[in-house]
Amino acid sequence: MPADSEPLLDVRDLTVAYESERGMVTAVDRVSFTLRPGEILGLAGESGCGKSTIALALPRLLRSPAVITGGQVLFDGKDVLDLDDRAIRSVRWRDISLVFQNAMNALNPVLRLSSQITDVIRTHDKVSAGEARARAGELLDMVGIGRDRLSSYPHQLSGGMRQRAAIAIALALRPRLVVLDEPTTALDVVVQREILDELRLLQGRLGFAVLFVSHDLELLAEFTDRIAIMYAGRIVEWAPSLPLLDRAAHPYTRGLLAASPDLRGTRAATRQGLPGTPPDLADPPPGCRFAQRCEHATEVCRGTEPVLLPLPDAAPSHVAACHLYPQEVGAR
Ligand code: SF4
Looking at the domain assignment, is residue 110 inside a domain? Predict the structure, then answer.
């Protein structure tokens, strides 16, 4: 994948709010990022940071009380947020598909796998029932379930097989972008590893881009090309995956890493929890949103919101929003 290729996905200042009794709560606040064809981008952060809201916003699957209040989601240059209902239905599954954490949410419990996969195929492609069933069989083979399971209902499958079935449905129309929202969190580590290895092989073979949402930084570092770290609705750091783990700059990223198990044995042996809680997004504080939990916070941090800028002595693709580093471009 050439680093200078045109982005497949260009998210600009995406803002999503939830209507609540206390007014609008902005869960995703002016978030921007790009994803190139075939690239795998990780999106990490604690629960409630806005990462899953972004995953659902891309194919416009958010439901009330969530409202997209600003920004653009350019897919192949076309703003998904401007499409009418018919046009967005053709983008879903064909261009952008999703795998959720719990496959049971994606699978219909009263339909056989064959019906669920062929429905997706025949809704978008004019093919005969026989051809759709043959493709469904190929998809089940491809994700390691096997076509002999075409007549199974979801409850007849193990958790790992259900997740593989959800992946088969997500890949049915050969989408160019697959959004994985904590796809293996509910599974044991052995099954998780098998599924991720297989997804990696499929991604290499089919060439789709991936937005991989997870709270697990070590997992993301293994699977992704770049990682963006979100805190309280904003991206606070992003970098190529391994440099992010080895040279995390933002105190929040460092805190996340200190709280995670170290599978590569390159960090301090003792794990430390991240004290405090994220701010109330109905009334976010001025300045840096992490200031209440940050041991380095100063008056400047509490008064002025830092912006994402390249770090000194790092690759230009490593950026962070933190007053520990010069906040004027000219100062770098
Ligand atoms: Fe901490 Fe200040 Fe950086 Fe925020 S801007 S992470 S409070 S040092």
Answer: no
Total structural domains in the chain?
1
Report the alpha-carbon distance of residue 332 to residue 329 in Å, rounded: 6
Q: How far is the CA of 108 from the centre of ligand 1 (A)?
A: 46
DSSP collapsed to 3 states, 41-97: EEEECCCCCCHHHHHHHCCCCCCCCEEEEEEEEEECCEEHHHCCHHHHHHHECCCEE
Whether ligand 1 lies within 6 angstroms of the CB of 11 is answered as no
Find out whether the beta carbon of 248 lies less than 6 Å from any atom of ligand 1. no
β-pairing verdict for 23-35 and 40-44 = unpaired
Q: Which domain covers residue 59, as residue numbers?
A: 9-95+175-320
Distance 322 CA to ligand 1 centre (A): 5
Render pLDDT for 271-313 as a digit per residue (tens, 0 to 9): 777 889 999 999 999 999 999 999 999 999 999 999 999 998 8
Q: pTM of this prediction?
A: 0.92
